[in-house]
Fold these 4 entries.
Entry 1:
Amino acid sequence: MAARTAADFVPDTTDLDALAAAVQSCKGCDLYLDATQAVFGGGSATAEMVLVGEQPGDQEDKAGEPFVGPAGRLLDKALVAAGIDRDRIYVTNAVKHFKFTLPERGKRRIHKTPSRTEVVACRPWLLHELMALRPDVVVLMGATASKALLGSAFRLTAHRGQELSLSDDEATAGLDFTPRVAVTVHPSSVLRGPPSERDKAFDALVSDLGFAAGLLPRR
């Protein structure tokens, strides 16, 4: 039996509003069972740059919007430092439902990294977002987002500051355009790092975002 994916739930459209409405009915993997709601991407419908993270976090799951929690606030700060207007970009995640565990005591939901199966199952949503937007540049933030579109063998740390291309295999089947691609860490990794290293990690994130902005065509 074929593995479940979101493909059966993604409408044949490149209308972002229609996609955002349809994602709430997705049962392409079991993550929908525990999440509050699906969290689709958000931002400019004419964005030249798309930033892709891993999955919504606790606050995103409750709000229904991407990058509104601590990592989102740090990303906002990094975008400003890199000279990028967030109102002119689009942000989304490789996985649309929040995956978490609960501690034996307490109610705080703890982030859990999506499995490869869950990332692959959810990928049709991301591909349709990209086809709707047709951005010039795609920035993959973190290992999960990078591997979602560049293959499971991709190593992010070896390719920061490089212009890349999306993998030419089933991962991006259906895309009929070729955006320029850059990779960087997920903003949450800056927050999780040792306090003594946080400024250095933040500056590196800003540098990566600045590099990505430099890939945009000059108008």
Entry 2:
Amino acid sequence: LANPWMNYSVYLSNSFLPCLLQLIIFQITAFSILQEIKLGTSIKWVNDAGQSIVIALFGKLMPQFIIFTSVGLAMQSLIYFYWGFPLNGNVWSMIWAMVLLVIASQAFALMITSLIPNLRFALSILSLVGILSFSIAAFSFPVESMYPAVGIFSYIVPIRYYFLIYINVALNGYEVYYCRWDYIVLILFALAPMGLLWKLKKNSLNPVYVP
């Protein structure tokens, strides 16, 4: 109903492009942090922040957040205003969804980085999750039709919830209230790595690179 032109790009571009952005965020976030540990410069990085891992991460990730958010908003402008794809809901709902997707993707990568302070291993895991997101996030195959052991993984990637917001807001024109849980889950993704920052600080102050 929301795609009277039967244009398949209306469906795929709105899902594949943000998923590609998520993959890039995963990689750059993990690389920028774990490269410090690999090279042994993480000690100076944390000390320059007054021994505060929160300040250290803010200084490193905030410029990336601004760049990624700008790219995401430019992507939405291209999709909804230049290409003229359907946007039946509030434009601000999609803008906030993109902002939360960027934060959630950075937080997901930060969580993996804190758990696995090894550049090669962490990048491999994030690459695998990022690539599989194109499938397990149910862009082209519904979760309900997947094997349960596979479909459950669709709920652990941030892009899944951005995708649900897109379907409900942009295509179906729902109010934010009816997809509020998808926004809440993206916020929970942002909070998820907070309890692991002590581990990242410990590894940063005692860098051990395992090739």
Entry 3:
Amino acid sequence: MAARRSEQALVDEWRAILALHARTLCELDRALRGHGLGASDFEVLDILAEGAAEDGGAAYRVQELACRVHLSQSALSRLVARLERDGLVRRGMCGEDRRGVRVELTDGGRARHAEAKPLQRAVLSRMLIGPRG
């Protein structure tokens, strides 16, 4: 009986995590819409901005981004193509591997990220810290 309760507690906790993730993603999408971004769009810009801050102009391979934003490579390729059409990122050939594609922020992408970042962080704070605090 105790094992069954323990198993149910584990399942309940997993479902609570999934529900929190879904609610947070919806809130992010709703909040970022005013900046012309979705949650995944912002996440790509945020990763690129962090990389640029660390080494002054980072470009990531699409495969590296896919691992960090938890999208399939094809979904990420479509997202990056849309961000490129919007002038927020630029794609180029990878110097080490001609088959690879690197992605970097444009000045417009840096500006859009800077505008949306406080809002995104506020939503994360409200959704992830607020309920527990």
Entry 4:
Amino acid sequence: MLAVILLIWQQQRLTVFSNEPASVPANQAQTATPELGPRHQLNYQQWLEILKQEANVAAEKRPPNLSILAGDSLSLWFPVELLPEDRNWLNQGISGETSRGLLQRLSLFDKTEPETIFVMIGINDLIRGVNDDVILDNQRQILRYLRKTHPKTKIFLQSILPHGGEEATWEGREKLLAIPNSRIQKLNQQLQSIAIRQGVKYMDLYPLFISQKGNIRQEFTSDGLHLSPAGYVVWRTALQVYQQEAGSGK
């Protein structure tokens, strides 16, 4: 899986970062280097209202091949032009979101009928000093809720990504340095076990982003925490590969 995704990324980056625009739907603007998603300065309650409105539209319109991204700023800032084009996307990410916060707002998209839901959450818990056991329990509850509310939906639990360590330039760099990437690895191993027990798919993205130094690869991040366009290309490819495998019953 790792070799396949990295090979596809190497092929796709030639398209995304060439002088020719990447292939995107006709109703979306084409850019040679995609910009990161919206970074509006909204408070949490304002974000909740926006996500509720968008989810209500999806529930009313019932778009085919609907996929939901549920998580924090990593999901929120996923460039629209880099999302897989064979489906409709509902982005339910909020910057700074925690596993507890996500758990408490899953009901916002209860009435939608997604084909797939992709969950990535946890890095902000670690930054805020939340205990691993609490993070894992919240993840369990998230998966239980989604399975009960969306019984026909394929649910994917994605691993927490590594950070940049000493090379990070994010404003909260010291907080990252207090979180060994080895801790994230161990947490991901437990998340995989939870996914198996909950009967959902586990997407192990961590190996795709890790460098030989044990941190996120510099070309895949903008500041040691958030992703660069190249990082989103890798994630996009993983979404495609895992979803295809799930569709084929593997």
